[in-house]
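Fig. S4 source data, part A: sequence.
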Amino acid sequence: MTAPDDTGLRGAGLVLAAAAVPFLASLLLLGLAVGTGTLWLFAPAWLVFQVAGYAGAFRIAGGDVTHPLFKAQVALHLLVLALVAAVFVRAL
């Protein structure tokens, strides 16, 4: 008897974990913006863009998080996270 193939489930979990990283970072950035006043316009806008982007991509992809459109949305927000990190590193 062979074990069921769960590579699709594992791939979906990886995509969702990758999507959670920039989302949690944007919440952290929003808390920083509220507390210190830095990036006060970017932080809430990025959070709204993420929610709208993930919801729209999820709807168009038919609920499949392994769809290339949803993966592109995740990659886009990971790129934005890398750019924000570069701004903070440059500021130090």
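Fig. S4 source data, part B ends here. The chain has a mean pLDDT of 90.
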